[in-house]
Amino acid sequence: MQAFIFLLFASSCHCVMNFGRLQSAGVKGLVYCKGKPAKGVSVKLYEKEVMFDRLMDKGKTDKYGAFKLWGRAREWSDIEPVLYIYNKCGRRFARKVTIDIPSTYITHFGQKVKFYDVRKVELSKS
């Protein structure tokens, strides 16, 4: 009986995790350090969760400091995308800059991804 209850619970958890609305979000922009393009800076797009954030996409800035990320996640409620920029920019230790993506840039399955443009992020001032 315990095995039956466990299997029933496990299968229901699997269903909950694989259903929900497929949603997408995108972000793009330029990263600068002390007025110059920041090349090779790590940028990551996450979906905020209660316990652990879920990675949607990651990359590095190009020689112009530019980046473009997008990802998708399946969630019952609206996803909460957030951009993390990991950098040193003249500091001794690396730190993380956090930028929330507005909900108006969340699209649903079948819709074209909208990219939130953070424009120019100056790391030396944040």
TrEMBL record:
Pfam families xref list: TTR-52
Keywords: Secreted, Signal
The keyword Ribonucleoprotein is assigned to this record: no
GO cellular component: cell surface; extracellular region
Leader sequence segment: 1-15
Keyword Signal: yes
Family, similarity comment: Belongs to the nematode transthyretin-like family.
The protein's name: Transthyretin-like family protein
